[in-house]
């Protein structure tokens, strides 16, 4: 495994590795992706092997520009063109009926494909140098914490990756918003940095939200009930119960981690406290790195203070709901 600063030479080398059917990890604005040539079925199978990912879980194909939509999708509605024009490059993936040439290993056996143009200069430079689509889920073990720094990828996947392009910390910090446009009404499959309200303003119609239509036939990344989770058991509680729950855990465990939002706990050498920002976007950007920091310590439990349950926090709460267990 090579870990290289993402300069022009390293990007050219990474593109050559992709053409050889090798795996390359690269930064996007959301999280680091584990990439393979999306038209090389054997290379894509390498992603599933490296992650321990079930074969029926589809991947997102990253493309260099919206004009390439027609290379991968068919029956593209005007809504897809509108969303691409407004939000690409950026943290939005669109699910559309796939072209026949798209390998089913990429789509988890489905007849739809998820596409996005990432909003990170290194990702875009790699896509242009490679000249094709790159299938890329997050560069971590299946259902574990997504990586937002190159070192996270190296720690978790090591030699399963031919090269890691280091483009610094990811600026969004949670995975892309996913919208399914393959049906009669746009459907939000995964919340992200781009809010439902922003999407609806462009579409001129309402989105079907996961809570309104939870039994979608479309499988998409991040839809598992347990996902984004640390190895250390992680628990979540209301802000007013944070101190009580911390003390209750310390009665039976020698050391616990606390991911706080705004509550101040009394100093205690048995508590390892990280306090995240109070703005939703800043919290999201810091979340995975903070969870990884606590997960690396010899802790019995991680206790997370529930942040606000408002629309601005939808993406953060989606990740926390899947990474933690609620404490009454």
Which terms summarize this structure?
DHBP synthase; globular; 15 strands; 328 residues; Rossmann fold; alpha/beta
What this model shows, in words?
The chain has helices at 8-19, 41-51, 69-72, 78-87, 104-107, 121-130, 150-157, 196-203, 242-250, 280-295, 314-323; strands at 2-5, 24-27, 32-37, 60-62, 92-97, 112-116, 134-135, 163-166, 177-180, 187-190, 234-237, 256-260, 271-275, 301-305, 325-326. The chain has 328 residues and is α/β, with parallel strands linked by helices. It folds into 2 domains: 2-203, DHBP synthase, CATH 3.90.870.10; 234-326, Threonylcarbamoyl-AMP synthase, C-terminal domain (Rossmann fold, 3-Layer(aba) Sandwich), CATH 3.40.50.11030. The chain has a 10-stranded mixed β-sheet, with helices on both faces. Strand 9 and strand 10 (187-190) form a beta hairpin. The N and C termini lie far apart (44 Å). 49% of the residues are buried. The mean pLDDT is 94. Keywords: ATP-binding, Cytoplasm, Nucleotide-binding, Nucleotidyltransferase, Transferase, tRNA processing. L-threonine binds at residues 30, 62, 116, 136, 176.
> What is the annotated CATH architecture of the largest domain?
Alpha-Beta Complex
β-strand number? 15
Average pLDDT reading: 94
Class inferred from helices and paired strands:
alpha/beta
Instruction: Please name the fourth-level CATH homologous superfamily of the largest domain.
Output: DHBP synthase
Helix content: 25-40%
The number of distinct helices, counting runs of at least 4 residues, comes to 11
Rg from alpha-carbon coordinates: 20 Å
**Which range does the strand content fall in?**
15-25%
What's the CATH first level of the largest domain?
Answer: Alpha Beta
């Amino acid at each position: 495994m090579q870990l290289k600063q993402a300069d022009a030479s390293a990007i050219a080398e990474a593109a050559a590795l992709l053409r050889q059917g090798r795996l390359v990890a690269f930064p996007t604005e959301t999280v680091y992706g584990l990439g393979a040539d999306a038209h090389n079925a054997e290379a894509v199978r390498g992603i599933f092997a490296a992650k321990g990912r079930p074969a029926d879980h589809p991947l997102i194909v990253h493309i260099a520009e919206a004009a390439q939509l027609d290379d991968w999708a068919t029956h593209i509605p005007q809504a897809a063109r509108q969303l691409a024009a407004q939000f690409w490059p950026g943290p939005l993936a669109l699910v559309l009926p796939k072209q026949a040439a798209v390998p089913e290993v990429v789509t988890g056996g489905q007849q739809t494909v998820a596409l996005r143009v990432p909003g990170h200069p290194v990702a875009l430079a790699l896509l242009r140098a490679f000249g094709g689509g790159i299938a890329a889920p997050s560069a971590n073990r299946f259902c574990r914490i997504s990586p937002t720094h190159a070192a996270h990828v190296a720690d978790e996947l090591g030699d399963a990756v031919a090269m890691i392009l280091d483009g610094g910390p990811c600026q969004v910090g949670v995975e892309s918003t996913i919208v399914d446009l393959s049906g009669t009404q746009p459907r939000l499959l995964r919340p992200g940095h781009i809010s439902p309200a922003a999407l609806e303003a462009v579409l001129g119609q309402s989105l079907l939200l996961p809570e309104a239509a939870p039994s979608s036939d479309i499988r998409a990344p991040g839809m598992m009930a347990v996902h984004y989770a640390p190895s250390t058991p992680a628990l979540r509680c209301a802000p007013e119960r944070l101190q009580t729950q911390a003390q209750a855990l310390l009665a039976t465990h020698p050391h616990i981690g606390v991911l706080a939002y705004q509550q101040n706990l009394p100093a205690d050498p048995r508590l390892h406290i990280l306090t995240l920002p109070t703005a939703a976007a800043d919290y999201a950007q810091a979340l995975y790195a903070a969870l990884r920091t606590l997960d690396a310590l010899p802790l019995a439990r991680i206790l997370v203070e529930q942040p606000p349950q408002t629309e601005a926090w939808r993406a953060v709460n989606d990740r926390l709901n899947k990474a933690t267990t609620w404490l009454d």
